[in-house]
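Hi R.,

Here's the chain you asked about this morning:
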Amino acid sequence: MFNPSQFVEEIRPQVYNVTKGEKVVAAVSGGVDSTTAAALMYTLLGDKVIPVMLDTGFLRKGEAEKVKEMLKNVMPLEVINVEDKFFSALEGKKDAEEKRHIFRDLFYESISEIVKRYNASALVQGTIAADWVETQGGIKTQHNVLVQMGIDTQTKWGFKLIEPLADLYKNEVRELARFLGLPKDISERQPFPGPGLLIRSVGELTREKLEVVREATGIVEKYLEGMASQYFAVVIQNKSKIDREISSELGKEVTIYSDKATGVKGDVRSYGKIAGINVELNYPKIRDLVSKITRHDITHVGIKILSTEKGNYSVIIRAVKTEDFMTADFVELNEDILISIAKELVKIRGVAEVLYDVTSKPPATIEFE
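And the predicted structure, written out as tokens:
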């Protein structure tokens, strides 16, 4: 059983040995992992730690200001706007891994500049076990997995790397956050990926798609707060066609979308298709149907909740329950909640339909990219 007090005492000498009294920069995304790592270091080293948050333009609406306010009694947080730099480099990119790699390089180039500005020697970040396990397994590149992939940060970007949580899983990080006295809004906060809404704008990144997913995120989070371990919206192009072979096999109409999504099959990455089905909300039957559909080159399956006549985008609601985020099961939301969310989502300009993702991990991953 994880003991946060013992963990802090065991890691204290390791931290002192690495930092040697020099300044360190702590990258804070607002999520529980990075914020807990920064708070731990601030507890141990005080003002030798400089917590910073990069506003990449892929944050939720009002995110930077909200996180800064939540942490005002914990540690000072400097927010640095790099939105133009990030969007100009990523606009028009389609492939999930390419987007993650570009984001990673831009992120650490920006951090390197901050480290130099403060004459610091190291970067603290909130990498946890699930991050590097998935990256090493080739499932998807987590932007904050570096040394585990053989990347020498000292040579490449000019700083040492400190990852105090690298052997912990999400439930243990939450225990540590509570022990450190972080606000409940942080310790119990649902995860938010480092690349943020970039990887929830599935497929080609455009300004319009990014703003649609930002609006959709606020709606989904408002309705599903406290109902799942993680819940969010993704946006894909509303371009699909009926798969005659699978539809004939199952006796149900199965549509395949033009955008693809990451999954995990046989413990390896699978970059497969997204399917949509129009069925009544009977979860036992849906689970059986999904198991058959995902035997094909399909990683995510959504049931269609509401459709309109016009719009370029489909919004997919995702809600899962999990302990360690290595496996996850979708939440069996009731029809009234799904319809209520969908009715608000189709009010967003450009949204043509709403689906609910009914795929567990595996064969899907929690995120789509």
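Confidence is low (pLDDT under 50) at residues 136-143.

Let me know if you need anything else.
M.
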